[in-house]
Design a protein that fits this description.
Bound molecules: adenosine-5'-triphosphate, magnesium ion
Number of domains: 1
Number of helices: 10
CATH superfamily: P-loop containing nucleotide triphosphate hydrolases
CATH topology: Rossmann fold
CATH class: Alpha Beta
Strand content: 15-25%
Shape: globular
Radius of gyration: 17 Å
Length: 239
């Protein structure tokens, strides 16, 4: 099983939205996917209509539960729990719990925007990191900082940067692209070819508690997340 940590130090960069939609697309392509909601805010669980579903991530971390089936074939979830904010473990709970997951092709760890234990253990355990960032120069400083932190601990882990919420302000987008292309060389990350546009259907689908493809099959957000899933499956060797 491949494990991906979806992480950025900065909040609101579409980490949970990306975990949900990438996971759902890859599950639709026939791979068995486990999503793990490591954030006490529980956006990912909410987006699948499973906020409040038990057993939660706290049970999973103590070895008492497995990922639960969702309404979507091949897509499973370990639901979030606000209690994770109070956990200060002195052992590698996430690494140990990941070793117990059997029979899955991919596990996606949706991390909180922090350096708490959940993010640290997820990034340390994962085979690769997916870092969504907003498509604007101001957010890109956060990317350098976050990648610097990863590189201190894991110089060789593959990191893919995803541009999210692209708007049509060309000057800003071009400036952001230039910074990201230069950064990819300096900081040794892979800049994903696919970017995700700002699209109201994406925000609405979360409110409707479903992946965007199930909310509006023709929305620009649906098409973008499908292309992204294809690109990631290729990079991650899911054939
Ligand atoms: N492409 C998009 N177009 C429009 N709205 C979007 C898009 N991507 C994400 N959003 C909205 O942006 C907000 C933040 O997204 P999300 O919760 O996925 O970010 P996050 O990085 O997980 O946040 P946090 O750091 O708090 O965990 C949500 O309201 C979501 O619906
Ligand atoms: Mg989130």
């Amino acid at each position: 099983m491949l494990t991906t940590a979806v992480w950025n130090l900065k909040g609101g960069t579409a980490k949970s939205t990306t975990s949900l939609n990438v996971g759902a697309e890859i599950a639709k392509a026939g791979f068995k996917v486990a999503l793990v909601d490591l954030d006490g805010q529980r956006t990912l669980s909410f987006g699948l209509g499973m906020d409040g579903t038990t057993p939660t991530v706290l049970d999973w971390l103590s070895g008492k539960s497995d990922p639960l089936p969702t309404d979507f074939k091949n897509l499973f979830l370990v639901p979030g729990d606000i209690g994770i904010f109070q956990l200060v473990p002195d052992e590698d709970l996430i690494g140990t719990s990941l070793k117990r997951i059997k029979g899955f092709d991919l596990c996606i760890l949706d991390c909180p925007p922090s350096l708490g234990f959940a993010s640290v253990q997820a990034v340390m355990s994962a085979d690769q990191v997916l870092m969504p960032t907003l498509y604007e120069p101001a957010s890109l400083k956060g990317v350098s900082e976050a990648i610097g932190l990863i590189r201190n601990e894991r110089p060789d882990v593959p990191v893919s940067v995803l541009r999210c919420r692209r708007r049509s302000r060309l000057v800003l987008s071009r400036e952001a692209d230039d910074m990201l292309i230069a950064g990819a060389v300096d900081m040794d990350y892979h800049l994903l070819h696919t970017s995700i546009p700002e699209n109201i259907a994406i925000a609405e689908s979360i409110a409707q508690q479903k992946p965007v493809f199930d909310y509006d099959a023709k929305a620009p957000g649906t098409i973008a997340y499908r292309s992204l899933a294809k690109e990631l499956m290729k990079i991650w060797g899911l054939k």
